[in-house]
Amino acid sequence: MEKFYNETLYKLEFSINELEIETDCSIQQVETVIHLILKCLSEVKEYILKRGFKNTDEEIRFFKYQKPTIVSKLIYYNTIYKIEARKPYGAKPIKKYLTKELKKLKRFFDNNLDFYKYYRSNNSFLDESFFVRGRHDIKLWLDTYYFQSDQSFSTSHDYKVAKIIANDMIQVYVEKQLYSKTQDNKSVATEKLNWTGSKTAMIELIYALNCQGVFDNGNTDIRLIAQYFENTFNIDLGNFYQTFLELRTRKINRTKFLDELRDGLLKKMDEQDEK
Prior knowledge:
It comes from Pedobacter nutrimenti. This is RteC protein. The chain is an all-alpha fold. It is built from twelve helices and no strands. The radius of gyration is 22 Å and the shape is globular. Helix 3 runs parallel beside helix 8. The protein has two domains: about 1-180, no CATH class; about 200-275, no CATH class.
């Protein structure tokens, strides 16, 4: 099962990457990608229904991690297709339109907060209810979508996991669209400093600074701050929203980098005092 899945996912991602390089028209590109993903899902479904699973653990792993990885791509590209197809003309209408799309993502997060916490914290005590076929419990954050799906290839929560993964990617896409033109032509230093610490450390620092409201009296969007740090220190932070969610779910020392900064500064002060 693992070998088949890895090979299938690799072929899909390779095909998508090739299209993104070769195709100029985004709408046509997305249409083609959607067809590729549907074909991939059909092949995976045929394999699963024919082969089955060796045990419950294998079934849970497939519906909790493997299938959602593929389905999330379908949700992502289908959403991007709709966003681009319906995008209005003009800077102000576009900004209003994209802001509305972000609010949709926030609404999904708010409506599914309990499951977000369960999934992001890597809990497993409800996995047999969430990710084994035929064991749904209507009391456990169940979507109407589940009853309309093919239950031979679905569990009560595999689609919700895919939606969570997709929404992270959609948020990054929309944020980039929304704030891509915010950078002006202000002069910058001819020589840039390169960040040599970890991306996680920078993200921890950015969120801490944002919480303190040190930029524009706290009126600056977190995305703008992250984009400024990326440009200034020559680093790609990737999906920093996802990284921050992972920081929040740390069991120990959620502010590791900030603690190290504090300890390092105090040590330096103590050394200077001793001179």
